[in-house]
Design goal:
Number of domains of chain B: 2
Distance between the termini of chain B: 82 Å
Distance between the termini of chain A: 52 Å
Largest sheet of chain A: 6 strands, mixed
CATH class of the largest domain in chain B: Alpha Beta
Oligomer: heterodimer
CATH architecture of the largest domain in chain B: 2-Layer Sandwich
Number of helices of chain A: 13
CATH topology of the largest domain in chain B: Alpha-Beta Plaits
Strand order of the largest sheet of chain A: 1-14-13-17-15-16
Strand content of chain B: 5-15%
Radius of gyration of chain A: 21 Å
Order of helices and strands of chain B: HHHHEHHEEHEEHHEEHEH
Shape of chain B: elongated
Largest sheet of chain B: 2 strands, antiparallel
Number of strands of chain B: 8
Strand order of the largest sheet of chain B: 1-4
Strand content of chain A: 15-25%
């Protein structure tokens, strides 16, 4: 038996991990930061500071509104300059808090030292509350508010905690570097999460192209029989939670259901570290590790970035040749979205900033579908992208829903593999937005 | 042999006669009594089945109207008042006059007025791009230039202008509402055609504050309220930093057009003003200016289009095949 991987579909794009092994560096804080209010999945946050207020690092500046929502804390200290809509990474203007930076004064009670604290003093309920208070969201890219995962409904029993350290996106190395540098903290973070969930066992899934991280974490987890590190075959999109559970445990999740139905809770390794910092150091989520990479970037590296710093600053820090850059992507090359303006800020969901060369940034000419079936073969959800794309285009929304278009995880494998460069995912996204609109309408009635 | 042929003929004709008798009685028994007026009305209708009246098709409209025995609330926008008048004697009721309407594009964010800030080479369907980004010009309210309204038009009354990347409504618009429904950003609106096709409207739906709106588009409504103050007839609504001229109240005095600092208020088909102010106007749309003072009969499509072409300002052409991206595949 070879290495573990998921059963349906998958591709193996060139890994291009240019910034692998680059130590995490801090980035200089600019004079002004722009903090968008819609940093998480679900409802945007509500600002609670006013113009002219003085804020400290880690101070709460925006309150969560709704169940699936997260709080936002100030990443810098200084004066609130304005609260107004600013362009975000989609090009839309979203409500943002703009802070003029003055010094770097941290709020009281936050431990900014590097010392490792192993003892967990809080109980399960307190941990969940703390996660909520610190505004932690899933740092893999989907930015799902983390505390929601820890509110386990009655009758459900989370058996396994799965730590997603797959980092299957090409180019990105932030999780890899974090594991190498903060391995011990991550293990403590895992213990905290297991306590909060009452899970019996933890599996850390790491792809086999990060052998040093596998060795490092296996060594750290040696004394703890409940934590197991498993090497996985390099296969995209293994970082999808459904794919990861399939790969590690061989359990499949029904369409539209959550991982909890098969007794699992999946968390990203970056989130694990953020939870460690929140519980042990009382530090809210206001900075994250971002990979700045791509061929036009002269020094591809991993940075510890405060949220609100413009993406332009990151590219400048890493010496990106902007003339050779045709496109800048927020995230990885497969699932990330290209940004219309590099003035947009780093948010909690920015896992990487990828500069693409001019010659690679253009789409290929769209040709006719030759019915080769490659997209169907690689689809990790077992869908038929070429057919879904056609019915989505025709506006057959009911048919789309029947054919489980909402199961699509938008991994982009179908577009990657299509020999005719057809815009399959664009059409499927159109269908998904139409179908979700239809479902919303139905629930209103 | 002769006998067998004769037999066959006899058998076949007797079956035929028998079937005919059965069918006759069945037809008598199950006869659907339909008002003959429905057929008459249906024949008079244009038969385009566009759905502009709110019914599934012309037949459904005819059935509905004959059954209701009134013309209140029934109006075929394609046939217009003339058709409704001709139908009135059929039903024996008074025709309800309705002012003829036309679809109006409330955006002037052409590639000259709202300069593209990035390239986009992904799917250009409006309903897709509106979810994806604010649009290449940066305005999150404005026209995306995908042409979904043009695709929705069954009457060949719209086309995309390649120079501005905006749709243009031609004079033969029948106000069937298809484009209004197709537009994901609700930019198009049905407005009264006005006397001699004279219309005044705010060609912008941007609800942002002035500086923000102006940053993306030179002809945006900046919410300065100058028009509201200038209007003596209380015809301008103001909400969310956006003015809206109520076409049923507006007296077409053109005061608001004069005071608008960004030329966001458009006047169509008016006689040119006395040349007291020859300030350079920002690119106005070349909608169906053409057939302004002409009687309707003369408005042949070709002529209209020619005139429209004449009216085009020579806007310099920026890359019209804008491009960016949604998902990015580094295929190499």
């Amino acid at each position: 038996m070879g290495l573990l991987t998921f059963n349906i579909g998958g591709i193996h794009p060139p890994e291009n991990k240019l910034s692998a092994g680059m130590a995490i560096k801090n980035i200089e804080i600019p004079k002004q930061v722009v903090i968008p209010m819609n940093q998480n999945l679900g409802a945007p946050s509500q600002p609670i500071v006013k113009r002219g207020d003085m804020v400290k690092v880690g101070q709460l500046i925006a309150e969560a509104k709704g169940f699936i929502a997260a709080k936002i804390h100030s990443p810098v200290s200084g004066k609130v300059f304005k609260i107004e809509p600013r362009i975000d990474s989609t090009g839309f203007r979203k409500e943002s808090i703009i802070i003029n930076v003055e010094g770097d004064e941290w709020a009281e009670g936050i431990d900014s030292s590097d010392t490792l604290i192993k003892d967990i003093t809080l109980d399960a309920f307190q941990i969940t509350e703390k996660i909520k208070e610190c505004g932690i969201v899933g740092l893999g890219g989907a930015t799902f508010p983390s505390h929601v995962k820890y509110i386990v409904p009655e009758g459900k029993n989370p058996e396994y905690l799965i730590i997603n350290a797959v980092e299957c996106e090409p180019y990105l190395t932030s999780d890899h570097q974090l594991m190498m540098e903060k391995g011990e903290e991550i293990i403590v973070g895992i213990r905290i999460m297991m306590k909060a969930l009452g899970a019996k066992k933890t599996i850390i899934g790491i792809e086999n192209n990060k052998t040093d991280a596998i060795a490092h974490l296996s060594k750290l987890a040696e004394q703890d029989s409940n934590i197991e590190v498993k090497a996985l075959k390099v296969q995209y999109p293994q970082g999808g939670e459904k794919q990861l559970i399939d790969a590690l445990l061989g359990r499949q999740i029904q369409s539209g259901k959550l991982p909890l139905t098969v007794g699992c809770v999946v968390n990203n390794v970056g989130t694990t570290f953020a939870i460690y910092e929140a519980i042990q150091k009382n530090k809210p989520l206001f900075e994250r590790i971002v990979t700045v990479t791509g061929y036009p970037v002269q020094n591809p590296s991993n940075y510890r970035v405060r949220i609100g710093i413009p993406i332009a600053n990151l590219l400048q820090e890493a010496n990106c040749d902007m003339d050779a850059t045709g496109k800048v992507i927020n995230g990885g090359p497969m699932m990330g979205k290209s940004i219309p303006s590099i003035d947009a800020s780093v948010t909690k969901g920015t896992s990487g900033v990828l500069a693409i060369r001019n010659e690679e940034s253009k789409r290929h000419e769209v040709k006719n579908c030759i019915r080769c079936g490659k997209c169907t073969t690689v689809c990790p959800m077992g869908l038929e992208p070429h057919l879904l794309s056609i019915i989505a285009r025709m506006g057959e929304n009911e048919k789309c829903e029947q054919e489980l278009i909402m199961d699509c995880i938008e991994c982009g494998s179908c577009v990657y593999t299509c020999p005719s460069s057809r815009p399959l995912l664009d059409n499927i996204r159109l269908g998904k937005s139409n179908v979700s609109f239809m479902i919303r309408q139905r629930s209103v009635k | 042999m002769d006998g067998s042929v004769l037999n066959a003929i006899l058998v076949m004709s007797s079956i035929g006669v028998g079937a005919a008798i059965i069918l006759f009685f069945v037809a008598q028994k199950f006869k659907v009594i339909e008002d003959p007026k429905i057929d008459l009305v249906d024949e008079a209708l244009p038969g385009a089945n566009c759905g502009g009246c709110g019914y599934a098709g012309c037949r459904a409209f005819a059935e509905g109207m004959v059954k209701a025995e009134t013309m209140d609330g029934f109006f075929c926008p394609v046939g217009g008042n003339d058709l409704m008048k001709s139908l009135a004697p059929l039903l024996g009721v008074e025709a309800v006059e309705k002012k003829p309407q036309i679809a109006v594009l409330r955006c002037n964010g052409s590639i000259k007025n709202s300069i593209p800030k990035f390239d986009y080479d992904g799917d250009s369907t409006c309903s897709f791009t509106t979810n994806l980004s604010a649009g290449v010009g940066g305005c999150q309210y404005g026209c995306l230039g995908g042409g979904e309204c043009v695709d929705a038009c069954d009457f060949d009354a719209m086309y995309m202008d390649p120079e501005t990347n905006l749709p243009v409504v031609k004079i033969n618009c029948v106000a069937c509402n298809a484009c209004v429904e197709a537009c994901p950003r609700d930019i198009l609106e049905l407005r009264d055609r006005g006397p001699k096709e004279k219309r005044i409207f705010v060609s912008c739906i941007n609800e942002e504050k002035g500086p923000l709106a102006k940053a993306n588009c030179t002809v945006a409504c900046i919410g300065c309220k100058a028009c509201v103050k200038a209007c003596k007839f209380d015809a301008i609504d103001f909400d969310n930093f956006l003015a809206y001229i109520k076409y049923d109240v507006c007296t077409l005095c053109r005061k608001c057009v004069e005071v608008c600092p960004t030329d966001a208020i458009h006047e169509l088909n008016f006689k040119p003003r006395k040349p007291k102010a020859d300030k350079p106007k920002v690119a106005k749309p070349k909608v169906e200016k053409s057939a302004a003072d002409k009687p309707k009969e003369e408005k042949e499509e070709s002529k209209t289009e020619e005139k429209v072409a004449d009216n085009k300002e020579k806007s310099e052409k920026t890359a019209s095949d804008v491009k960016v991206e949604s998902t990015n595949n580094d295929k190499n």
